[in-house]
Structure prediction request, 271 residues.
Amino acid sequence: MSIGVLNNISSLIAENAVSNTQSSLQSTLQQLSTGLKINSGSDDAAGLSIADGLGANIAALSQSSQNASDGIGLLQTADGALSQVTTQLNRATTLATEAGNGGLSTAQSTALDTEFQSILSEITQIGATTNFNGTAVFGTSATTFTSDGTTTGATTTTTAIAALTPAALGLTGNLLTSAAAQTALTAVTAAINTISANRGAIGASVNQLTADSNVQNTEVQNLTGAQNNIQNADIATTTSNLTQFNILEQTGFDALSQSRQAQENVLKLIQ
Prediction:
Protein backbone atom coordinates (compact mmCIF):
# COMPACT_ATOMS: atom_id res chain seq x y z
CA MET A 1 0.00 0.00 0.00
CA SER A 2 1.40 3.40 -0.96
CA ILE A 3 1.91 6.10 1.64
CA GLY A 4 0.82 9.66 0.88
CA VAL A 5 0.24 12.98 2.59
CA LEU A 6 -2.06 14.81 0.18
CA ASN A 7 -5.32 13.18 1.33
CA ASN A 8 -6.12 11.42 4.56
CA ILE A 9 -8.82 9.05 3.31
CA SER A 10 -9.19 7.24 6.63
CA SER A 11 -9.76 10.56 8.37
CA LEU A 12 -12.47 11.51 5.85
CA ILE A 13 -14.19 8.17 6.37
CA ALA A 14 -14.06 8.60 10.14
CA GLU A 15 -15.37 12.17 9.94
CA ASN A 16 -18.29 11.07 7.76
CA ALA A 17 -19.12 8.19 10.11
CA VAL A 18 -19.01 10.52 13.16
CA SER A 19 -21.26 13.03 11.39
CA ASN A 20 -23.83 10.36 10.57
CA THR A 21 -23.71 8.99 14.10
CA GLN A 22 -24.23 12.46 15.61
CA SER A 23 -27.19 13.05 13.31
CA SER A 24 -28.76 9.76 14.44
CA LEU A 25 -27.92 10.57 18.06
CA GLN A 26 -29.60 13.97 17.79
CA SER A 27 -32.70 12.37 16.28
CA THR A 28 -32.78 9.76 19.05
CA LEU A 29 -32.47 12.41 21.78
CA GLN A 30 -35.33 14.34 20.17
CA GLN A 31 -37.51 11.23 20.17
CA LEU A 32 -36.78 10.65 23.86
CA SER A 33 -37.49 14.28 24.77
CA THR A 34 -40.78 14.48 22.83
CA GLY A 35 -41.92 10.87 23.13
CA LEU A 36 -42.56 10.89 19.39
CA LYS A 37 -40.73 8.96 16.70
CA ILE A 38 -42.14 11.32 14.04
CA ASN A 39 -41.20 14.91 14.84
CA SER A 40 -41.06 16.29 11.30
CA GLY A 41 -41.94 15.34 7.77
CA SER A 42 -38.38 14.21 7.16
CA ASP A 43 -38.74 11.48 9.79
CA ASP A 44 -41.66 9.77 8.02
CA ALA A 45 -43.68 11.87 5.56
CA ALA A 46 -46.37 9.23 5.00
CA GLY A 47 -46.65 8.40 8.68
CA LEU A 48 -46.93 12.08 9.62
CA SER A 49 -49.72 12.59 7.08
CA ILE A 50 -51.66 9.62 8.44
CA ALA A 51 -51.13 10.66 12.08
CA ASP A 52 -52.26 14.23 11.38
CA GLY A 53 -55.35 12.92 9.58
CA LEU A 54 -56.19 10.70 12.52
CA GLY A 55 -55.67 13.68 14.83
CA ALA A 56 -58.28 15.66 12.89
CA ASN A 57 -60.72 12.74 13.13
CA ILE A 58 -60.10 12.45 16.86
CA ALA A 59 -60.69 16.18 17.41
CA ALA A 60 -63.98 16.11 15.48
CA LEU A 61 -65.21 12.98 17.24
CA SER A 62 -64.27 14.30 20.69
CA GLN A 63 -66.22 17.50 20.09
CA SER A 64 -69.10 15.51 18.61
CA SER A 65 -69.27 13.46 21.80
CA GLN A 66 -69.45 16.72 23.74
CA ASN A 67 -72.17 17.99 21.39
CA ALA A 68 -74.15 14.82 22.02
CA SER A 69 -73.73 15.24 25.77
CA ASP A 70 -74.99 18.83 25.52
CA GLY A 71 -77.97 17.66 23.49
CA ILE A 72 -78.72 14.99 26.09
CA GLY A 73 -78.52 17.63 28.81
CA LEU A 74 -81.04 19.84 27.02
CA LEU A 75 -83.46 16.97 26.44
CA GLN A 76 -83.15 15.78 30.03
CA THR A 77 -83.90 19.31 31.20
CA ALA A 78 -87.10 19.24 29.15
CA ASP A 79 -87.99 15.78 30.45
CA GLY A 80 -87.46 16.88 34.06
CA ALA A 81 -89.75 19.87 33.56
CA LEU A 82 -92.42 17.68 31.96
CA SER A 83 -92.16 15.30 34.90
CA GLN A 84 -93.09 18.21 37.19
CA VAL A 85 -96.01 19.06 34.92
CA THR A 86 -97.23 15.45 35.12
CA THR A 87 -97.19 15.70 38.91
CA GLN A 88 -99.20 18.92 38.70
CA LEU A 89 -101.70 17.36 36.29
CA ASN A 90 -102.18 14.36 38.56
CA ARG A 91 -103.20 16.80 41.27
CA ALA A 92 -105.48 18.56 38.77
CA THR A 93 -107.09 15.19 38.04
CA THR A 94 -107.93 14.80 41.73
CA LEU A 95 -109.32 18.33 41.91
CA ALA A 96 -111.47 17.95 38.78
CA THR A 97 -112.79 14.61 39.96
CA GLU A 98 -113.73 16.07 43.31
CA ALA A 99 -115.31 19.16 41.73
CA GLY A 100 -117.28 17.00 39.30
CA ASN A 101 -119.20 15.50 42.22
CA GLY A 102 -122.59 17.00 43.08
CA GLY A 103 -123.51 18.61 46.39
CA LEU A 104 -120.54 20.99 46.70
CA SER A 105 -121.09 24.50 47.96
CA THR A 106 -120.08 27.50 45.93
CA ALA A 107 -117.23 28.18 48.33
CA GLN A 108 -115.95 24.62 47.98
CA SER A 109 -116.12 24.74 44.17
CA THR A 110 -114.35 28.09 44.19
CA ALA A 111 -111.58 26.73 46.44
CA LEU A 112 -111.08 23.74 44.14
CA ASP A 113 -111.00 25.99 41.07
CA THR A 114 -108.54 28.36 42.74
CA GLU A 115 -106.07 25.54 43.20
CA PHE A 116 -106.76 24.30 39.69
CA GLN A 117 -106.03 27.73 38.20
CA SER A 118 -102.87 27.87 40.29
CA ILE A 119 -101.74 24.63 38.67
CA LEU A 120 -102.37 26.11 35.22
CA SER A 121 -100.30 29.15 36.19
CA GLU A 122 -97.50 26.88 37.38
CA ILE A 123 -97.53 25.07 34.03
CA THR A 124 -97.26 28.44 32.28
CA GLN A 125 -94.33 29.34 34.52
CA ILE A 126 -92.52 26.05 33.87
CA GLY A 127 -92.96 26.42 30.13
CA ALA A 128 -91.72 30.00 30.08
CA THR A 129 -88.74 29.75 32.43
CA THR A 130 -87.23 26.35 31.67
CA ASN A 131 -84.00 26.96 29.76
CA PHE A 132 -80.71 25.29 28.93
CA ASN A 133 -77.57 27.40 28.65
CA GLY A 134 -79.70 30.52 28.59
CA THR A 135 -81.94 29.31 25.76
CA ALA A 136 -85.63 28.50 26.13
CA VAL A 137 -86.35 24.76 25.95
CA PHE A 138 -90.03 24.51 25.09
CA GLY A 139 -91.40 25.54 21.70
CA THR A 140 -88.05 24.91 20.03
CA SER A 141 -86.12 22.16 18.28
CA ALA A 142 -83.11 20.53 19.90
CA THR A 143 -80.50 20.13 17.16
CA THR A 144 -77.30 18.14 17.67
CA PHE A 145 -74.53 18.06 15.07
CA THR A 146 -71.93 15.30 15.09
CA SER A 147 -69.09 14.53 12.68
CA ASP A 148 -65.98 12.40 12.32
CA GLY A 149 -64.25 15.16 10.38
CA THR A 150 -65.06 13.77 6.93
CA THR A 151 -67.52 15.07 4.35
CA THR A 152 -69.67 11.94 4.62
CA GLY A 153 -69.49 11.47 8.38
CA ALA A 154 -71.73 14.35 9.48
CA THR A 155 -75.12 13.79 11.13
CA THR A 156 -77.70 16.22 12.45
CA THR A 157 -80.26 14.97 14.98
CA THR A 158 -83.31 17.17 15.54
CA THR A 159 -85.94 16.72 18.25
CA ALA A 160 -88.99 18.97 18.32
CA ILE A 161 -89.97 20.07 21.83
CA ALA A 162 -93.55 21.32 21.85
CA ALA A 163 -94.58 24.56 23.49
CA LEU A 164 -95.67 24.14 27.09
CA THR A 165 -98.70 26.23 27.99
CA PRO A 166 -102.19 25.38 29.31
CA ALA A 167 -103.63 26.41 25.95
CA ALA A 168 -101.22 24.14 24.05
CA LEU A 169 -102.33 21.29 26.31
CA GLY A 170 -106.02 22.14 25.88
CA LEU A 171 -106.42 23.23 29.51
CA THR A 172 -108.66 26.30 29.41
CA GLY A 173 -111.59 25.29 31.65
CA ASN A 174 -112.54 25.76 35.28
CA LEU A 175 -114.03 23.77 38.15
CA LEU A 176 -116.78 26.17 39.18
CA THR A 177 -119.57 23.77 38.24
CA SER A 178 -119.93 20.02 38.15
CA ALA A 179 -120.32 20.00 34.36
CA ALA A 180 -117.31 22.30 33.87
CA ALA A 181 -115.24 20.12 36.18
CA GLN A 182 -116.11 16.98 34.25
CA THR A 183 -115.13 18.69 30.99
CA ALA A 184 -111.90 19.85 32.61
CA LEU A 185 -111.19 16.30 33.78
CA THR A 186 -111.37 15.04 30.21
CA ALA A 187 -109.00 17.80 29.13
CA VAL A 188 -106.55 17.03 31.95
CA THR A 189 -106.52 13.32 31.03
CA ALA A 190 -105.76 14.22 27.41
CA ALA A 191 -103.01 16.59 28.56
CA ILE A 192 -101.41 13.84 30.63
CA ASN A 193 -101.37 11.60 27.55
CA THR A 194 -99.83 14.40 25.49
CA ILE A 195 -97.11 14.99 28.06
CA SER A 196 -96.43 11.25 28.21
CA ALA A 197 -96.06 11.08 24.41
CA ASN A 198 -93.72 14.08 24.43
CA ARG A 199 -91.57 12.50 27.12
CA GLY A 200 -91.46 9.27 25.13
CA ALA A 201 -90.18 11.10 22.03
CA ILE A 202 -87.60 12.96 24.13
CA GLY A 203 -86.50 9.72 25.76
CA ALA A 204 -86.01 8.08 22.38
CA SER A 205 -83.80 10.96 21.27
CA VAL A 206 -81.80 10.76 24.52
CA ASN A 207 -81.20 7.07 23.87
CA GLN A 208 -80.09 7.79 20.31
CA LEU A 209 -77.68 10.53 21.38
CA THR A 210 -76.33 8.34 24.17
CA ALA A 211 -75.64 5.57 21.67
CA ASP A 212 -74.01 8.06 19.30
CA SER A 213 -71.80 9.38 22.10
CA ASN A 214 -70.75 5.86 23.07
CA VAL A 215 -69.82 5.06 19.46
CA GLN A 216 -67.86 8.31 19.14
CA ASN A 217 -65.96 7.66 22.36
CA THR A 218 -65.08 4.16 21.15
CA GLU A 219 -63.88 5.56 17.83
CA VAL A 220 -61.75 8.14 19.64
CA GLN A 221 -60.19 5.37 21.71
CA ASN A 222 -59.42 3.23 18.65
CA LEU A 223 -58.12 6.09 16.52
CA THR A 224 -55.96 7.35 19.37
CA GLY A 225 -54.44 3.90 19.66
CA ALA A 226 -53.76 3.84 15.93
CA GLN A 227 -52.22 7.31 16.04
CA ASN A 228 -50.02 6.30 18.96
CA ASN A 229 -48.77 3.24 17.08
CA ILE A 230 -47.77 5.43 14.16
CA GLN A 231 -46.36 8.44 15.99
CA ASN A 232 -45.21 7.49 19.47
CA ALA A 233 -41.63 6.42 20.09
CA ASP A 234 -40.85 2.98 21.49
CA ILE A 235 -38.93 4.16 24.55
CA ALA A 236 -37.19 0.83 25.12
CA THR A 237 -35.94 0.65 21.53
CA THR A 238 -35.06 4.34 21.46
CA THR A 239 -33.08 4.06 24.71
CA SER A 240 -31.20 1.10 23.25
CA ASN A 241 -30.45 3.16 20.15
CA LEU A 242 -29.19 5.99 22.34
CA THR A 243 -26.65 3.65 23.97
CA GLN A 244 -25.59 2.32 20.58
CA PHE A 245 -25.08 5.78 19.06
CA ASN A 246 -23.21 7.04 22.12
CA ILE A 247 -20.78 4.12 21.78
CA LEU A 248 -20.46 4.67 18.03
CA GLU A 249 -19.78 8.35 18.60
CA GLN A 250 -16.96 7.53 21.04
CA THR A 251 -15.43 4.89 18.75
CA GLY A 252 -15.78 7.27 15.82
CA PHE A 253 -13.86 9.96 17.67
CA ASP A 254 -11.21 7.36 18.55
CA ALA A 255 -10.96 6.28 14.90
CA LEU A 256 -10.69 9.91 13.80
CA SER A 257 -7.90 10.46 16.31
CA GLN A 258 -6.10 7.34 15.11
CA SER A 259 -6.35 8.37 11.47
CA ARG A 260 -4.80 11.74 12.20
CA GLN A 261 -2.09 10.05 14.23
CA ALA A 262 -1.30 7.85 11.23
CA GLN A 263 -0.91 10.96 9.07
CA GLU A 264 1.50 12.45 11.60
CA ASN A 265 3.52 9.22 11.49
CA VAL A 266 4.12 9.79 7.75
CA LEU A 267 5.87 13.03 8.60
CA LYS A 268 8.33 11.15 10.79
CA LEU A 269 9.62 9.36 7.70
CA ILE A 270 11.07 12.58 6.31
CA GLN A 271 12.61 13.84 9.53
DSSP finds five helices and four strands in the chain. The mean pLDDT is 85. The chain has two domains: 9-35+238-268, 45-231. The first helix runs from residue 9 to 34.
